[in-house]
Amino acid sequence: KQWYQRRVAITAGVTGCREVKIHCNTVNSALGSAMVCYGNTRVIAGIKGRFAEPTINNPNSGYLIPNISLPALCNSKYRPGMPVERAISASHKLNTIITDITDLMELCIVPGKVVWCLYLDVVCINDDGNVFDAAVLALSAALYNTWLPATHVNEETGLVTVEPGGEKKRLVLKFMPVAVTLSVFDNTTLPDPTENEEDIESGTITCCVDDKGKMRAMWASAALPDDMMSAALLYIQKRASVLLAVVLKVSQRHTGAAG
Fold first, then answer.
1. Where does residue 173 rank: exposed (0-12), middle (13-18), buried (19+ CB within 10 A)?
2. Are 116 and 107 in contact (CB under 8 A)?
3. Per-residue pLDDT at 156
4. What is the pLDDT of residue 1?
5. Positive or negative: CA dihedral 126, 37, 147, 120
6. Crossing angle of helices 226-258 and 131-144, rounded to 10°
7. Residue 46 and residue 30 in contact, taking contact as beta carbons nearer than 8 Å
8. I want to staple 47 with a disulfide (CB 3.0 to 4.6 A). Which of 31, 117, 208, 256 is the partner?
9. Among residues 138, 120, 91, 99, which one has the least CA distance to residue 31?
10. CA–CA gap between residue 138 and residue 166 (Å, rounded)
11. Which helix (H) or strand (E) holds 238?
């Protein structure tokens, strides 16, 4: 099997992962955006903003609303209509990761009245496996390059509008997350699974690690012996470091132009 050949390559010291490509500021109409390719898997993340009323419990805090879409065009196994269960599950996981990624009070425009609501939309263009890892990487790059428009508040009416010529404000992140998924085959793990490999896996292990080395979340649908789990987590940390280095390098290259 092809996955077995990749596992042997990993044992020999090869990463066994597909090439990762990141392109920032790919959607002109978004406040921040990025496209990520994991081999043939391709996703686009875009940040859109609108004015909203804050909640009663948090009158000075804005919102972050993440969503991952798996449209029918990205893979024939998906059908048009209601969101597929996999997309809903992935969106919930994404929400867990980004809950405190930025200070929500920095999204306040008029205390108790108007705040920014940021929609963090990730759309899969082609699903050839490991969409979630690609989605998290794309979202991290998009958020890193997000700039909020200047706003103007009419003192008489209280109406808030975007000030086109005003100075933009960069969205400051507390951390930058990446996700690393391993497919489990019996007692063997395989990183960055393709669609074909996902079809025959017995489970997965997904960890989210940030740029400070902190494990932000972990999901596992398969059990491994303690020694193999320790080895898997060590690999995940190393792989996360590689991904973080790539996304930071590409994002920092585009930061100045975005502002």
1. middle
2. yes
3. 84
4. 54
5. positive
6. 40
7. yes
8. 31
9. 120
10. 28
11. helix 226-258
- The residue length of the chain stands at 259
Label residue 8 by pLDDT band (50, 70, 90).
Answer: very low
CB atoms within 10 A of CB 237: 14
Q: In the block, which residue shows the tokens 């960069």?
A: 170
DSSP H or E stretch at residue 6: helix 2-11
* Mean pLDDT of the 188-204 span: 89
What is the rounded radius of gyration, in angstroms, for the C-alpha atoms of the chain?
20
Helix (H, G, I), strand (E, B), or coil: what is residue 254?
A: helix
Which pair of structure tokens corresponds to residue 181? 């998924």
pTM of the model: 0.91
> For residue 108, which amino acid is it?
C
* The two structure tokens encoding residue 149: 């428009």
What's the sign of the alpha-carbon dihedral 172, 160, 33, 127? positive
Among the listed residues 38, 37, 33, 36, the one whose alpha carbon sits nearest the alpha carbon of residue 18: 38
- pLDDT at position 258 is 46
pLDDT interval class at 3 (50, 70, 90): low
3-state DSSP call for residue 131? helix
CA 110 and chain centroid, separation = 29
The tens digit of pLDDT for each residue in 76-97 reads 999 888 788 999 999 999 999 9
